[in-house]
Design brief:
The chain is mainly alpha-helical. The protein is about 55% helix and about 5% strand. It has a two-stranded antiparallel sheet. It is elongated and about 70 Å long.
Length: about 210
């Protein structure tokens, strides 16, 4: 009905997205009806109010309620560390793709990217050479990188050193942990997962 400015509508929708990414998608919290009641109450107030200023105040009040219900960082990180995507574990693929796309968009140099055409590369290979067992953290966020399918094929299951050389020549933006690492093992993967967890909670999906 255009009784609110677009920035107000976009702002509250972004807040709702951030909240449910943390509350629902990552920490799998149960609302026991409290979340539904919160939305219903604010929706009724919003529809009955005529003043634009008071409508904006209602949206701010809702945002405050969302912040109050937000899980702690410790709980978020613990669950974030358990996100997994491999060829054999695909249940969380869409969530991981969404998450990696948002992280990449924040780090990109402004060039438009069609994230539907991007694939998830595992830095430590799912099928290491010489018959070695893959890392137990191979499917976690810290081991994943968003690349196009052509680059994914080029990287294949090469060593980390070879992959890093190829990536350096590509247009992929590398984060500080990959850039500063001479080798790639469990310690580096876990450190990068925690790095992204903190960035996700405090920057990208911050309420």
């Amino acid at each position: 009905a255009k009784t609110l400015r677009q920035k107000h509508v976009v702002g509250i929708l972004e807040a709702i997205e951030c909240f449910h990414f943390v509350f629902s998608a990552i920490t799998s919290q149960r609302s026991s009806g409290g979340i539904s009641n919160m939305y219903a109450t604010h929706a009724i107030e919003l529809s009955e109010e005529k003043s634009v200023d008071k409508k904006v105040a209602i949206l701010e009040k809702l945002k405050g309620e969302l912040k109050r219900r937000l899980p702690s960082y410790a709980e978020f990180e613990a669950n974030f560390m358990e996100l997994v995507y491999t060829d054999d574990q695909t249940k969380q693929k869409r969530l991981v793709q969404y998450l990696m796309a948002k992280i990449d968009a924040q780090n990109s140099n402004g060039i438009p990217v069609d994230y539907e055409q991007m694939t998830l590369e595992h830095l430590a290979s799912q099928k290491p050479k010489d018959g070695l067992e893959p890392s137990e953290y191979v499917g976690t966020i810290g081991n994943l990188l968003l690349v196009n399918s052509r680059l994914n094929q080029k990287l294949s299951n090469k060593s980390f050193q070879k992959k890093k050389e190829i990536l350096a020549k590509s247009k992929v933006t590398l984060d500080e942990i990959i850039s500063n690492s001479a080798q790639w093992g469990d310690g580096e993967i876990q450190a990068r997962t925690k790095f992204f967890a903190k960035k996700a909670y405090e920057e990208i999906w911050k309420l």
